[in-house]
Amino acid sequence: MTSFDKLKFTPKEEEIRNKMITLKKEAGTHSPSIHTLTQLIPGLKIKVDACFLSNPYATELYMDYFKREIIDQNKLRDLLEFYPSQNDVIAFLLSSSINIDPKQIFIGNGAIEIIQAIIHRFAKKKMVVNIPTFSSYYEFAQDMVDVEFFKLRKEDNYNLDIIEYINFIKEQKPDTIVLINPNNPTGNYILKADLIKILKELSFVENIIIDESFIHFAFEDEFYSEVTLSKLVNEYNNLYIVKSMSKDFGIAGIRAGYAIMDEKKVNQLLKNGYLWNSNGLAEHFFRLYSQKEFIANYQFARKRYIEETQKFIIDVSKVANIKVYPSSANFVLIELPEEISSELITSILLIRHGIYVRNCADKIGLEGNYLRIASRGQDDNQTIIDVLKGLFN
Amino acid sequence: MTSFDKLKFTPKEEEIRNKMITLKKEAGTHSPSIHTLTQLIPGLKIKVDACFLSNPYATELYMDYFKREIIDQNKLRDLLEFYPSQNDVIAFLLSSSINIDPKQIFIGNGAIEIIQAIIHRFAKKKMVVNIPTFSSYYEFAQDMVDVEFFKLRKEDNYNLDIIEYINFIKEQKPDTIVLINPNNPTGNYILKADLIKILKELSFVENIIIDESFIHFAFEDEFYSEVTLSKLVNEYNNLYIVKSMSKDFGIAGIRAGYAIMDEKKVNQLLKNGYLWNSNGLAEHFFRLYSQKEFIANYQFARKRYIEETQKFIIDVSKVANIKVYPSSANFVLIELPEEISSELITSILLIRHGIYVRNCADKIGLEGNYLRIASRGQDDNQTIIDVLKGLFN
Question: 3-state secondary structure string, chain B?
């Protein structure tokens, strides 16, 4: 194994490293974007943004349609000048693509707005969040809500122990619980059958939020068929399915997301807000998503990306001296040897190799030094593998 | 004056008219967009959308910059693929253009999100809203908030009587009051000096919301200098200035707005929400708005539009048999003779002449039959004038 003592930074590199540390601090529990980084650190060249969790092939597909349907048809002005449709109109557009009653659909300005809307409106006294996880779930809780953490155990590879979890919830009696499936930053996946067990056992919990923002990267059969619990909203009226479109469709910039929930809850949210929370591009995207041809092409891009991602995870697992956690998402969680800080490796990868990864030092609930590395296109993934091998083998 | 009895609708026209009535009902207290109308009423041709309140010259200017900076530079994918910056980063971008401390700026996904955020978070028991007005202010009030209306009087041309208003507020003791300046749908303008009088007298009111979404169309001097009360947030920490960018910049589709308020309130809002509520196009717009050259060109487009709008209002005033209210906004409120319903004229204008105007029958606080007609480009305005003359002279 390389001795990291040899990898001393030059004064110039040390300066960049310190700037990165400052920027990370300022970005709170999220990472500074590559735009912020390159803008504030002149001379920094980012070749691979492996901090960014999205399917680049889906972005390509979307851009292709956007060019054909909007740019080439001179329709861009229409999307930017006029008011987009109201929430329920866009819900109706989406309903055929996901085969859900439009009255059960709540459209959001990104999944993040939906998380906020649900937690602000429906979480009342106590919320249980599993850690490690996406921090907004506990950060968005209002002051009157107690947040209790359910710690996923390192010895279980941060997998959820269903029985233990059910017992914990029965004991704690929260009104709101959150399950991200697959989880971020671990990539752990809870089987549909296990989630149904949880729903059955925890019917007393008022709000069960299942965040399926990474679900298009997971699969339970050899055909990579899409999995979702959306339909179960008919059976469990305490269930909320939250879905970002940013990751699987690669369109974080347009802010599109939706949630499936009991019709009464959609009405409660729309009763005094969220009237015009979609922009023109998001509305166009939801129209696109209702086209059969687009969906067929998307499924192709999705399955190609899943295959490459699974290969990437296997390749990363072969790098010596690091521990790689199994993942059903589009990223992989890596544990570094005890004596090597995640900040050091993040800096080396960025400054020396132009690879931007997520330093997980701020993620509560992770024990050890961790990086989260996204799967990108084939060539970028190969670059990451080669650099990791050079560093750790 | 034309006898409207002669204007009998053909069965085909009657069918369209009935569809319009249904669509209007479904859209609640807002109007169906021209997209919804043309999609659901085949054969309907809209030539002038005078329901839509925006400066078309500003849209042209924006599209010109968008083409040069984004499309031609191949930067569109960057805006759509990656996460936009967080709220405080965009506030910082905007701060130089409006000369306000970034800590006092809250960025919104359109002004509508800001109205919702302020009212949901800060209005506690009682809110006073002047009517007629933009309905979202009272519709967004949560169940525990009493909404009291202050009726603007027809005999005052719906102008606010400052003394009477101050006395009413002192008597009612609401925690939240709302003033839209210029008001929608009347176009009435409250002088800056009068608003300062209100602020001085009503320091006991916890939240004074002044919505300046149409303020770029108003002026108090011959140079059409921009007016705003933004700076007064330093003096009055109960003041909120709400600002849509949709109307003056003609970019309703990208959803961009901001509010100026006491730093502590911005922090309260950002503490558990609104992290990534801007999309990539909105962020680019705020970057554009910080460019001196763009602002200079915008001021030219703004002043040209003000001049044409003022001329339009004078021309409409010369049409016989209708009453035209003075307006400092980019639209004009018209009162029809008692025996003629606003629905009838709206239908005639749309079906026979392709002109879409706002039927104000659902606006509470207006006594009589009213239409609101937006000022558009010069030619469109002339078309409107000619048709109105044909109908009413």
Answer: CCCCCCCCCCHHHHHHHHHHHHHHHHCCCCCCCHHHHHHHCCCCCCCEECCCCCCHHHHHHHHHHHHHHHHCCCCHHHHHHCCCCCHHHHHHHHHHHHCCCHHHEEEECCHHHHHHHHHHHHCCCEEEEEECCCCHHHHCCCCCCEEEEEECCHHHCCCCCHHHHHHHHHHHCCCEEEEECCCCCCCCCCCHHHHHHHHHHCCCCCEEEEECCCHHHCCCCCCCCCCCCHHHHHCCCCEEEEEECCCCCCCHHHCCEEEECCHHHHHHHHHCCCCCCCCHHHHHHHHHCCCHHHHHHHHHHHHHHHHHHHHHHHHHHCCCCCEECCCCCCEEEEEECCCCCHHHHHHHHHHHHCEECEECCCCCCCCCEEEEEECCCHHHHHHHHHHHHHHHC
Facing A116 at nearest CB: one of B54, B254, B273: B273
Q: Who among A81, A253, A255 is closest to B253 (CB)?
A: A81
- CB contacts < 8 A (A, B): 153
pLDDT tens per residue across span B231-289: 999 999 999 999 999 999 999 999 999 999 999 999 999 999 998 999 999 999 999 99
Q: Spell out which residues of chain A touch residue B116, defining contact as CB-CB under 8 Å.
A: 272-274
Nearest to B328 by CA among B118, B161, B160: B160
Give A96's Cβ-side CA count (13 Å radius).
12
The reported pLDDT for the residue numbered A2 is 53
Q: Sign of dihedral through CA atoms B292, B296, B297, B299?
A: positive
Q: Are A305 and A55 in contact (CB under 8 A)?
A: yes
Q: Evaluate whether A107 touches A277 at the Cβ level (below 8 Å).
A: yes
Backbone angles phi, psi at A278, to 5 degrees: -105, 150
Residue A243 CA to residue A259 CA, distance in Å, equals 6
pLDDT in tens, A118-158: 999 999 999 999 999 998 999 999 999 999 999 999 999 99
Q: What is the pLDDT of residue A6?
A: 55
First to last CA, chain B: 5
**CB pairs under 8 A, 24+ apart, for A148-155?**
A148/A172, A148/A174, A149/A364, A149/A365, A151/A365, A152/A183, A152/A186, A152/A188, A152/A365, A154/A366, A154/A367, A154/A368
What ipTM was estimated for this complex? 0.94
Phi then psi dihedrals of residue B147, to 5 deg = -105, 125
- What is residue A31's predicted lDDT score, i.e. its pLDDT? 82
Please compute the mean of the pLDDT values over residues B341-364 and round it to a whole number: 94
Q: Model confidence at B294, in pLDDT bands (50, 70, 90)?
A: very high
Distances (CA, A) of B53 to A281, B110, B329, B356: 20, 14, 9, 12
Return the pLDDT at B274: 95
- A contacts of B249 (beta carbons < 8 Å): none
- Cα distance between residue B62 and residue B71, in whole Å: 12
B-chain CB neighbours of A54 within 8 Å are: 81
Among residues B352, B371, B321, B384, the alpha carbon closest in space to that of B8 is found at B352
Amino acid (1-letter code) at residue A382: Q
| The pLDDT of residue B5 is above 60 | no
CB contact under 8 A, A251 and B81: yes
Q: Which residue type occupies A17?
A: R
Residue pair A392/A321 in contact (Cβ under 8 Å)? The answer is: yes
